[in-house]
## 1
Amino acid sequence: MADKSSTNAYWEANIGIIKVCLVIWALVSFGFGILLRPLLAGIPVGGTDLGFWFAQQGSILVFLALIFFYAWRMNRLDKEYGVEE
Amino acid sequence: MDQFTLNLLFVGASFALYIGIAVWARAGSTSEFYAAGRGVHPVTNGMATAADWMSAASFISMAGLIAFTGYDNSSFLMGWTGGYVLLALLLAPYLRKFGKYTVSEFIGDRFYSQSARMVAVICLIVASTTYVIGQMTGVGVAFGRFLEVPNTTGLLIGACVVFAYAVFGGMKGVTYTQVAQYCVLISAYTIPAVFISLQLTGTPIPPLGLFSTDVASGEPLLVKLNQVITDLGFASYTGHHADTLNMVLFTLSLMIGTAGLPHVIMRFFTVPRVADARWSAGWTLVFIALLYLTAPAVGAMARLNITDMMWPNGTQGEAVAVETINNDPQYNWMLTWQKTGLLDWEDKNNDGKIQYYNDANADMDARAAEGGWVGNELTNFNRDILVLANPEIANLPGWVIGLVAAGGLAAALSTAAGLLLAISSAVSHDLIKGALNPGISEKGELLWARISMAVAIAVATYLGLNPPGFAAQTVALAFGLAAASIFPALMMGIFTKVNNKGAVAGMLAGLLTTLVYIFLHKGWFFIPDTNSFTDADPLFFTIKSTSFGAIGAAINFAVAYFVSKATDPVPAEIQDLVESVRIPKGAGTAAEAH
């Protein structure tokens, strides 16, 4: 098993990645999809505006990208710190 | 071949397939019954989880709720997909590393307390039972239509089928069966959508069709839709009319609830490695997104088709004649759905036509007076029928209608079965084996699993006869309960060193406040007319009972934090447990040690 300081660094790196991902997660759904929609009202998308697109389609696509990014990034991080299975 | 026979054929063939697979992969031991061994590939697991997850709420109900509300119901789309991000980042890999079978086992061990485990079991049972009520609503709609009987009869028949189905096999049978169910339900959902998208926009991909041009009018589809429905006095489709605070909290509740639902989390115990748990969440969302990206197109296009059907001469022309509805084969769907009691119309002004408009909108008064209308004559359009009626509304071939019937039943059955499994494992494994009678034999445990399934389905069926809302709304309540109770406990178990007393107090506070808030608005124990408030005029600001889960979760976190601060720190061995859960290394041994 890796030593204590190395596992702490691993955990902190993980928390950092999670924070970035969750900021994007909240931005595309609660942000672009709901609260910031009036700001995006000027950008037309297929008969409506960008906020509507984010609320009904865009956010889902970003969620997918986030999960796959996280899985890829973490599997690499596991190896960097030698904590993979 | 008539439509009824064709439906029977499709439903029969799909059932034969599921049962065949269940027999082939029948669960033998208790560990197989709960967690299917640990040999499931992430893609397979993702597909099965998607089938488990996409219930009557997603398949039958959601597009209908979006169709009649538009943008304001985007919460369902963002909420039920966004929760997977939380699940993948905050829970799945660590719970897999922990390596036990059930959510409450994790809570019991991490919070080194039998009472924490029992409280978790109660939270799971409350959330799952509420969820099953929503499923039974959907099952009633699907069986009612498919057998052409009243909704109540459909519900009772459906309950028997669900029970037989869930008792038949454990998780192992269910995993492979659910892969088959996923294939049936996703093709049943997307094929009619492709047809309809082609008819309306010429685009074969429904999510693109939603944002393209309506061929008939030459305008963008959403512009056309906004125009026809506002002509009839309804709120615009793309506009934001809902209360923003409520919309944000509702979306958040659905997201947190998704990550706190036992039958979904249980799935991530069944992958071979921690890395696979991360990928599995991604694959699950891929398979779910196929439906969730199609749903808004289904909703918008169906709304346009329905409006066109009720106003065949345009919204400024004459409404559809009663005679046309009775005789034109295109309107046959209205007659078949009328039999279920979920769709109805009445020629109130005796002009031989059915005027469908928003009679609550004062702007329509002038036109109504001029035309001699005395109120909306499409008196009942249950939102839950939209998806199942959709292919008939669009006049699609009979085989598509049969396929949709099979898909709707697959969605309702697979989730109901998954939930019944979660409930039965909570009762037999956690409650009885874990606390009341640790020496129980494997056989005794399986017997209790089945008894608890029977009780759960009986309760859900009884309450499903008078459901607290449309299928997706009832299910949303279940998510609120899971959000307020389970998710915070799991998250704090991994990311903080909150102690046993904090966790128990937090879960109880979250569950009870949310449950009481829901009961105050929806009736005590969902019994109709025992409510003191309504969601139209809620107790607390503009927060509806469906949105309270996020508040409940905040209460849970806060109570747990302060109680934990005020009491003893966690023992050293639990600190080590938390440290070990955070690191993937050694997951295989943890699983074998059980």
Note: The interface with chain B takes residues 1-2, 7, 10-11, 14, 18, 21-22, 25, 29-30, 33-35, 37, 45-49, 52-53, 55-57, 59-61, 63-64, 66-68, 70-71, 74-75, 78, 82-85 of chain A (CB under 8 Å).
## 2
Amino acid sequence: MTQVARAGERRRLTGLAGFYAVVMRTAVQTQFQYRTANYLYMVGMIAEPVIYLVVWSAVAEAQGGSVEGITAGEFAAYYIVWTLVRNMNIVFTPYGWEGRIRKGELSGMLVRPVHPIHYDLAYFAGWKFVVILLWVPIAAVLSLVFRPTFDVSALELLVFLVAIWGAYLIRSMLLWALGMVTFWTTRVSALYELYFTAELLLSGRLLPLALLPGWAMTIADWTPFQYTFGFPIEVLAGDLSTGELWTGLGLQAVWTAIGALLVAVVWRFGIRRYSAVGN
Amino acid sequence: MDDDGGNGPGSGGQPAIRVRELRKTFRVAEREAGLRASVRSLIKRAHRDVDAVAGVSFDVAPGEVVGFLGANGAGKTTTLKMLSGLLHPSSGEIAVLGHTPARREREFLRRITLVMGNRNQLQWDIPALDSFEMNRAVYRIPEAEFRRNRDELVELLEIGDLVRKPVRNLSLGERMKAETAAALLHRPQVLFLDEPTIGLDVTAQKRIRAFLAEYNRRTGASILLTSHYMADVQALCNRVVVIDAGQVLYDGGLRALTTRFSAHQTITVGLPEGGADLSGYGEVLESTPDGRTSLRVPKTQAGAVAARLLADHQVSDLTIEDPPIEDVIEQVFADRSAVGAR
């Protein structure tokens, strides 16, 4: 790369960083305007892990205090961390693509000199800061009620702070790629449902992966889902070795790269079709 | 904004926009109504090629404001989308400021803007000023230049009080003014405006028109404008390109359009005595109780008919006018023999 090209690339990245900062700030401003709605949404969302938690706590109690070695306190820790990871995992939904294309919003994005994925990544990343702020009291209440067992080292905390953003990136890429199927057909809700069902089972969202049967764990190992839920949760609430922590982060990086490649390829063909057909 | 006119590849004698034999063909699925046709379409889908744009050629010079006219479905928006890089042409050539729009290069996108009526780029929940800030980041406008452009646009559009309110609290007219400012913050050299005043009241329309004229004067930007409001076209454009069924019917001056395609003129005559039957002089378009009658007469005979009216009646006033531009456009569409007229 020549010096001029390097300087150009540096300018481009600086400009992009400025764009991310402005969009994230905008997202924070916007979401604070909807703080009540955000809170109600979060409270509603808590119902899902609380149900799982109550069920598994009951099973643990019935089995003499633990299920496959996981105690009620560890279940509580798992599902309380789950609530934060789930919030970090909220990204632009594939269902949003239909409106984006039909209403011509995508056209507005395409005449701007920034790839639309940067807007989504920046906007939802900004939203997370509001979410984390709103999550703290909810987590405090859940902790008081369910008494989680935590044993967190500084390294685990550090890895967790990286892993939740890794989870965010992987899920953003995968759902962006999935949503772009709308370029070809809008009748894709069955495909989305298939994705979300597979994710529910194989990610650690429904239950800790350690409780899956062997064959399901084997499948889970070859899919990206656990790096969007189970891995970041286990980092804080589980008992992963240092090696497992680094391997997990490495695999998050790999799945992020695969997701980015997938987005680039589908986007290239999708936008070619959009440019041929219009909206 | 400086009075620097167009610069870059679009200036220096080169047109800002150059379009040659532009075509866009869409392949659309079609089938008859009914269950049988529905089942048949499962096995074999019938398609038809539709030429939305069928060989359009024109140039727009740096600083020129051109009205792009046509009925719904004539191919105006499809052409604008190809010019702004949203659609790939099926064939033909386009150069906008020396760029090929379909490549959507960042440098090209930084130099144009596309404003489509009722489509917003402002964030709904925050004040327009914050959306302006986002555009500053999108277009990487240097801070000082951004402030200068923003303040000037805010002043020209008289939206100083509005830009601090959340966009959702603005009326349609107020929002369109703020949208227009947002679309021009990066001081584009080519503006594609698709129905920029649609849905606005007369006052807001006038404000936007006056602003666009002033923007064009100050920056020397080229503007290609579609509008169903002839007042927009008359106020802003010296030249119009009329298309129908994807082809150019007329490309030339607005005044020449009327001269060329209007075979009739309207004589409005006031008779103090009233009640006179004037049908012998021409086709009566309107007759009011106060004695005013509008007559449609062949343009070549308008002078003679006016003289006869003055000779035959006691006339309080008489005017001869060209028909409204809307009627002329209608006439152009009706006159398919005019295809290729330039």
Note: The CA atoms of residues 101 and 107 of chain A lie 8 Å apart.
